[in-house]
Amino acid sequence: MNLTKRLILILALAVGAGACGVKKETHAKVLGELTKCQSDLSSSNKTVASQGERIKKLEGELSLTQSERDKMTLSERQKAMKIGALMKKMHTTSSQLEAKLLALRKQNERSQKRLKAFSDLQARFRALVDTGKLKVNFRNGQMVLQLPSGVLFAPGRSNLRRPGIKALNEVLSILLQFKNRRFMVAGHTDNVKIRGRFKNNWHLSTARARSVVYLMIKAGFDPKNLVASGYGEFDPVAKNDSAANRKLNRRIEIVLIPDLSELPNLKIKNS
Asked: Are 110 and 219 contained in the same domain?
């Protein structure tokens, strides 16, 4: 029997007892029971109210915990996304660095190859270099053989002298081992104006380059692999301020044109 029904029954007994002339002791006992039930009811109501507040508090805490959990999950997702983006960026950077390293290695291999070819040529031309008839060096990124014009030509002339032909044939006998390479023969002069059959130093330098090219063709070089050019006085290797320096500027250069495979990769923008 719950507390409410019990209270109603006691109340009825108390009223009935008073009306039917029940003994005072019995009536007092019933009233005491009623008072106790009322006290128990009040205490139960307080307990229920307290439990209700506790439930509300727990519900609030549960809601807060769920919200914090959602926030934590969102934060973790954001962190995961940031980590993923960072890993992707690191992977991209790593791939770019590997590509650059590979390009540098290839460029280094090409450089080593060119240096070896340069050393080989120096060794093969050693006798001519030692006598001053020839210089072997790199100029403007190209391997160049320099022959002084005084050995090859008379002043103001473009026809090869006999000593010049002999010196050139010595050079060409070695260059024939590379005859499938492309060569550019360049004529150079000092800045002293000339008189005679040639209009200027540019014409003279070009005519001298042609004479060397003709001799190379005669020696067995493919005309398709030869270029003749004249720079006149506009590409000096020394200042034209003394007889010695002007002598250095009067020269024929045989330039070994590099293959495209020997050049570093170049990105060309379309105009």
From this structure: no
pTM value? Answer: 0.57
Parent domain of 90? 80-114
Rounded Cα distance between 147 and 158, Å, is: 14
Q: How far is CA 198 from the centre of its chain?
A: 53
Residues 94 and 214 placed together within one structural domain of the fold: no
Residues 86 and 190 in one domain: no
Asked if residue 266 belongs to a domain, the reply is: no
Amino acid identity at 140: N
For residues 15 and 6, give the distance between their C-alpha atoms in angstroms, rounded to a whole number. Answer: 14
| 216 CB-side CA count, 13 A | 29
Say whether 181 sits in a helix, a strand or coil: coil
How far, CA to CA in Å, does 234 sit from each of 60, 187, 214, 230? 91, 11, 24, 9
pLDDT 10s digits, 34-49: 677 667 777 777 777 7
Q: What is the count of structural domains for the chain?
A: 2
- Token pair, residue 267, equals 């990105």
Q: Which two tokens stand for residue 170?
A: 């010595």
Q: Does residue 164 lie within any of the structural domains?
A: yes
In whole angstroms, give the CA distance from residue 268 to residue 271. 9
